[in-house]
Amino acid sequence: MQIQSNFSLRHFNTFGLESVASFFAEVSSVEELTEILVDPVWRQSSKFILGGGSNVLFTQNVDALVIHPAIKGIDKINEDEHSIRLKVGAGESWHDFVMHCVEHNYGGVENLSLIPGTVGAAPMQNIGAYGVEIKDVVESVEAVSISEGRKRIFSNAECEFGYRESIFKKALKNQYVVTGVTFVLNKKPVINIGYGDVQKTLAEMNVSEPTIKDVSQAVIAIRRSKLPDPAQIGNAGSFFKNPEIPLEQYNSLKNAFPDMPGYPVSETMIKVPAGWLIEQAGWKGYRQGAIGVHEKQALVLVNYGGGNGNDIRELASTIQGSVEVKYGIRLTPEVNFV
Length: 338
Description:
- By secondary structure, this protein is of the alpha+beta class.
- The protein folds into three domains: 67 residues, 2-Layer Sandwich (Uridine Diphospho-n-acetylenolpyruvylglucosamine Reductase, domain 2), CATH 3.30.43.10; 113 residues, 2-Layer Sandwich (Uridine Diphospho-n-acetylenolpyruvylglucosamine Reductase, domain 3), CATH 3.30.465.10; 104 residues, Uridine Diphospho-n-acetylenolpyruvylglucosamine Reductase, domain 1.
- Strands 6-7-12-10-11 form a five-stranded antiparallel beta sheet. The chain has a four-stranded mixed beta sheet with strand order 1-2-5-3.
- β6 and β7 form a beta hairpin.
- α4 packs across α5.
């Protein structure tokens, strides 16, 4: 294991923003991770855990030891007639893992195809798309405490999953490094095509009885049509969460803005698409120099090349204020600012 100094993180974040880490270490096993965490030389040093960098906005250099978990492996624990349990290394590409499951007809994650990032970062954010969240398939999360180097297994319940939230973003933020995730997947998949875009795309594909591979291909087609490829245009996918507001507030807004979409999340709460709010506030396709709002999806802030993280943060803040003035709704970023 090599520890490098003054290390550029530009290729370790999907915005493609320049940031320099004081020190950088890539760890390929739990043992290597533990070794560096308990090492007397590094034990008292500030540490920053960086996975695929698909949910981070660098606004400055990182004066810390940046640890990049590159722990690989997709291992079968056990299976029966109905399900299979897989333990997956934190450093595996999320999309590659989904493709592995689709190839083997393991159902449960096909709706999460083409989401960027690593398996280790997925439970921290409780990633979700098209009616599925990772909490639906996670059995447990293996993690190592940063302060002591001790391994702990978190059950699904202990992860305290919420909408784009988990205990790793709240009570235990910056206290653990996820090293592996155990999934329970369905060998007799139940197809989830409740979202209209998925149904529409499957119809365009002339698929009437979809398999999980069909659903995966439909989701990939939708995401490619709406979202820019980070390899081409720097971005972190959805920049803001879809806000959930009280039913009474939604009904009042609906009277003023009849076209406002909303989706019930409970008897008293309605989820409103953040992209719709941003677009209606006039931001879709906005550009200021090297940064802007994507022309096809207002929920995505972009770096066209040479952009600055602080400029993106300021743009996000301006959008928040604009939406709040018009609708009385304060948008919350999904992306973590550093």
